[in-house]
């Protein structure tokens, strides 16, 4: 639900920001040339692109081109353009806004991804230290449940020592999500069903399970699933009294 709400906000900003900027330029359109107006609209597109969403950046670029046409070229409030130079400027505005917006969105997304990877490494390191210091498996499992909640955007996560627990949907040791024997595309649709089984293993044996209650429709990457498996393996190391798993 949080992701859906964020997408709605981005969609509104992608359309609304260029339209608002173009509307604010109406009193000055007789004093600024078309090139200046176009550059100001590109800034609005970049502002939307800082969200990291390439789709929002593309929508903002299209909205900027249409707003330039509607509000800042003659005849005003019409999609027709009478001056050839304004047509060229509008086309260039669309192209430049698409390129600049995409670059800005990619850069923001890469920075966010890098920060997230750093958080994941820190999470695994913290669990490794708990196991290395000999903390009890119940405490390690409690900490791990909190990390899994945040990592996979879960509604709930609980640990069970009952090795006989079975769920139709489970996460394999290599980070794949299977419903029965069918692989689920978590990168598009998020974790499926009401409950997902993440086995806790050590030395080839299943010692328990994390039962995950997903938040619907929030994408989960392959990297996040592999980190989740590593977190569960740390709990397995604590339960078996073995050495911490290196990360």
Structure write-up:
- The protein is an alpha+beta fold.
- It folds into 2 domains: 2-110, no CATH class; 134-240, GAF domain (Beta-Lactamase), CATH 3.30.450.
- It is built from 7 helices and 6 strands.
- The strands form 2 sheets. It has a 3-stranded antiparallel sheet with strand order 1-6-5.
- The longest helix has 49 residues, at 84-132.
- The protein is elongated and about 75 Å long.
- It starts with a helix and ends in a 7-residue tail after the last helix.
- Mean pLDDT is 89; it is low at 242-247.
Helix/strand layout:
Elements: H1 2-24, H2 34-49, H3 54-72, H4 84-132, H5 137-151, E1 154-160, E2 169-171, E3 177-179, E4 182-183, H6 186-189, E5 196-202, E6 205-214, H7 222-240
Antiparallel strand pairs: 1-6, 2-3, 3-4, 5-6
Helix pairs in contact: 1-2, 1-3, 2-3, 2-4, 3-4, 4-5, 4-7, 5-7
- Which structural category fits the helices and strands? alpha+beta
Report low-confidence residues grouped into runs of 5 or more. Answer: 242-247
* Overall pLDDT score: 89
General shape: elongated
Distance between the termini: 32 Å
Indicate the proportion of strand residues: 5-15%
Give a quick set of tags describing it:
2 domains, disordered C terminus, three-stranded antiparallel sheet, alpha+beta, Beta-Lactamase, 247 residues, 7 helices
């Amino acid at each position: 639900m949080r992701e859906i709400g964020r997408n709605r906000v981005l969609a509104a900003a992608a359309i609304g920001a260029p339209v608002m900027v173009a509307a604010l330029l109406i009193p000055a359109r007789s004093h600024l040339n078309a090139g200046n107006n176009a550059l100001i609209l590109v800034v609005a597109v970049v502002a939307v692109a800082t969200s990291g969403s390439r789709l929002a950046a593309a929508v903002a670029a299209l909205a900027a081109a249409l707003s330039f046409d509607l509000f800042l070229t003659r005849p005003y409030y019409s999609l027709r353009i009478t001056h050839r130079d304004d047509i060229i400027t509008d086309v260039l505005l669309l192209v430049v806004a698409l390129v600049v917006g995409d670059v800005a969105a990619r850069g923001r997304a890469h920075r966010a991804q890098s920060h997230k990877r750093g958080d994941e490494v820190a999470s695994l390191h913290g669990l490794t230290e708990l196991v290395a210091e000999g903390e009890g498996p119940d405490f390690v499992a409690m900490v791990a449940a909190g990390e899994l909640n945040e990592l996979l955007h879960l509604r709930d996560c609980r640990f069970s020592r009952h090795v006989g627990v079975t769920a139709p949907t489970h996460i394999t040791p290599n980070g794949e999500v299977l419903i029965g024997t069918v692989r689920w595309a978590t990168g598009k649709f998020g974790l499926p069903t009401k409950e997902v089984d993440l086995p806790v293993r050590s030395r080839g044996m299943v010692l328990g399970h994390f039962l995950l209650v997903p938040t619907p429709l929030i994408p989960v990457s392959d990297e996040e699933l592999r980190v989740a498996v590593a977190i569960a393996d740390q709990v397995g190391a604590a339960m078996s009294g073995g050495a911490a798993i290196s990360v």
